[in-house]
Amino acid sequence: KVVHASDIIRLNMRKNVDDQWHCPVSCQVFGINSKIVAILPSRNVYAYQVVKQLCGSSSSVADFLEPSISFNPRTDIVKLYDPEDIDLCTRRDLSNFYFLEEQRRLFASNNQERTQIKHSASSLRILEEARKVSEQKKQMHIEKTNAKTKKQDESQHFQNSLHTATFFRIKALKPTTMDVRESSQQTGGKTSGSLTSTSLAVSTSSQLRLATDNEIQEARWRFLRALKQRGFVRLETTLGPLNFEIRADVAPAAAENFLALCAHGRYDAALFYRIIPGFMAQAGDDDNRSAWNQPFRDEFDARLSHNSRGILAYAHPGKKDYNTSQFYITFGPCLHLDNRHTVFGKLVGGHDTLDLIEAQATDDDDKPYDDIKIIQATVFQDPTPQADIAFEKYVQTNMKNQRITTTQPSAPRPSERRFLPSTKASSSTFNSSSDNNTKQRHTTSTIGKYLKQ
Question: Helices 165-172 and 384-407: crossing angle, nearest 10°?
Answer without folding.
Answer: 10
